[in-house]
Write the structure tokens for this entry.
Amino acid sequence: MRRSFSIRMRASREGFHISGAEGIYSEKDIINIVKEYTERAISHAKGKPDEILLTIETLKESPKKISSLPLCTLNTRNLKSAKKSAAKILQAVGISKRAVEEAFKALSIGITMRGAMLIDIEGVRLEPDLLRGVRVTRMGISEKASTVISRILRPLNINNDTVKEALVLASKVHHYPMVLGELCISDDPNYTTGYVASSAYGYIRLPHIKKRGIPYGGRAFFIKGGELKELIEYLQRTPVIINRIRPCRAVMNIKDILKDIK
Ligand code: PML
């Protein structure tokens, strides 16, 4: 069996997160990826890091091969419509209004957690460490699937690392049946598009989910009943690789999305 490696990068300044990246690669890619990640770490719009952590780890088990979530972009024009649409989609998969409000509130208090928060469908926080959250790691995309997704995203003008890496992460997360939905708002002050994701509706991008200039954000995963320890183990440890790309569509409206349950 060919060995696979999880390569991860985290850049920070005075303990505050600036940027991160990760993937699963074969040995021949290590040198190039370390160079690419280091360049990303030192040239991020959020500024220069004073610490860059690079981890190169041999995977002890073969990565689980899964498909990406289908992707589309919603036609939201402002913060109000983006928030309203996010709430509608999340409630359509069974998450309570209270839980959605709790997620928006926690994502806008001004602190970016290192990992995601876990919220049950009634709005109760479940992650064992409320400050750090649960960081999803050990995921990647095969070379072939990466070429395919780039070819599909290019004409949609969204062929960039931010979209691709967020889609890879969400695809890993929503492969686990206990996860009902997700709300993500970028912590990059210049990046105002976020997304909601679920296995039911896929990965739905939300332009204008935050105002430009806001330097915090994060992820909330909405969880239904089941063994929390096993879910956390999956999110943090199980290696997963995307090897098949599901459809990615251009801009859509909320009505079409909601009638289009997968
Ligand atoms: C991040 O900053 O990494 C989160 C990005 C979320 C949105 C990605 C997209 O445009 O689809």
User: Anything to note?
Assistant: The two ends are 35 Å apart (CA to CA). The chain has seven helices and 13 strands. The mean pLDDT is 94. Residues 162-163, 166, 184, 186, 188, 191, 193-195, 205 surround pimelic acid (CB under 6 Å).
